[in-house]
Amino acid sequence: MTLARRGLIAVPDATAAALILWVWAYPLAWRPGLVGVVVLAMLMEFVVIQAGPFLGRIVYGDRMGLTPRERRRSALALGAVYLTFAGLAVGSFGRWFPFFLFAWLFGAKVYAALLGRRPDATGREREMAYWVSSNVLYLAVVFAAMFVPVPMLGVTEDGGFYGLRGRYEWANYPHEALAAGFVYFAAMALIRFLDLRMGAELSAGE
Asked: Helix, strand or coil for residue 108?
């Protein structure tokens, strides 16, 4: 796999990390609600991560003995579940931005899975490794941000100032969500790039 292709696969996560860093440093550069968007994105990301095994079934279904009809059914079922979730988010906020946010997060996973597809067991194993890494890393950075002091940068107010409602951890300390989001997406971009490079080198060596 070429360097350019490995870089393209890492682009969505790297882009998300850069945007979160910008919001973290300059939360009022565009509008205060951007902090709330990042918090929502982090909540949605955990749900989207769980689509990993189902995406693998769809992308590598031909190698798993699934018929095209079974793969289409899996795709429709997965789409129905996540569209329902996105619809609930839209209804909860009364605005359409959660739908587009969800589409970006979910689309990024589909994009990476399709672009990194390989017609052998190595490709399936890599996707499963990414899924495990995503879950472990997400939980690690979220809990670390809660217990390890992280810089506020530009996010110096509580969540209410940025349009967040409720009394949960990230509503009280929104900078924790931004810190966790930046580290998570930056690390996933690096993991994807380096793992793909390692896979390519191993394959070349064999």
From this structure: helix
Of the candidates 53, 50, 26, the residue with the CA atom closest to the CA atom of residue 175:
26
Residue 127 near residue 73 (C-beta atoms within 8 A): no
C-alpha angle 183-108-78 in degrees, rounded to nearest 5: 120
Site of tokens 């870089």: 7
What's the predicted TM-score (pTM) here?
0.80
**Cβ within 8 Å of residue 112, ≥6 positions away:** 9, 12, 130, 192
Number of other CB atoms surrounding residue 50 within 10 Å: 13
What is the DSSP code (8-state) at residue 159? G
**Per residue in 114-158, pLDDT tens?**
776 665 556 667 777 778 888 899 999 999 999 999 999 988 887
